[in-house]
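mind reviewing both lines:
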Amino acid sequence: SSPLCSPPLSNPTPNNNMGIDLKAGGRRVGHKSSTKVIKTQNPYTRLLIKLYSFLARRTDSAFCATVLKRLHMSKVNSPPIALSRLVKYMTGKDGKTAVLVGKVTDDVRLMEVPKMTVCALAFTATARARITAAGGECISFDQLALRAPKGTNTVLLRGPKSRAALAHFGHSTSVLNPHTHDGVKPYVRSKGRKFEKARGRRRSNGFKV
C-alpha cells in the first residue's frame, strides 16, 4: 500500500461521545421545563391547569393554549388590571366576555361601570361589587370552560407589565450590603432630610453588632 493512503478505520460506526455544535451565546437548555412542572401550590390554579391542558390538547384552540401558558406564569408576570383599563379595552365589544389570567382591581377614578361579563382568577371585593351592581357578571375559569370551551366571543386581556409597584420589588439595601440592590425603592412616606435617613442608611449611623 502507498504511504500516502491513510489506514482504514478500525471502528467505522460513529462514536456516541461526539461534540455538540455550540452557538454563540450558548444554547437555550431546559427553557421548556417551566410548564412541565406545576410550581404553584394553589389547588384551584392546579386544577385549572389540568382542565386547560386537556382543552388545549383536545380542541387545538389557540385560546386554551394561551390561557394554559399564562396559568403557569409567576405572579409578577400575571399583573392585575384596573377596572378603568378593563372598561377602556371592552368599549365597542358588547356581548363579549373579558378574560384575564390575573386579578381585577377597583379604580376609584372610574365613575360609571358598564354592564359586562368578566372572567378572571380573582376580583377585589369592590371591583366585584361594582361589576355586579351594573348588571354584569364575574365568572371563574371553570365556568368559562363550560360556556366557551374554545374561547368563542371572548377578549383575552393582560394587565400592564410595567407598573409603579415593581420599583419596590427585591431586597432592601442597608449599610451592611450597600450595593446589592441599589434600584429597589423603599416604601417611604416622603423623600427628604427627616425621613429614614439615620440608622442603617448612612455610614455614620450603621448597625452596631
The chain has five helices and five strands. The helical segments are 43-59, 62-71, 83-89, 125-133, 141-147. The mean pLDDT is 87. Residues 43-59 form the longest helix (17 residues).
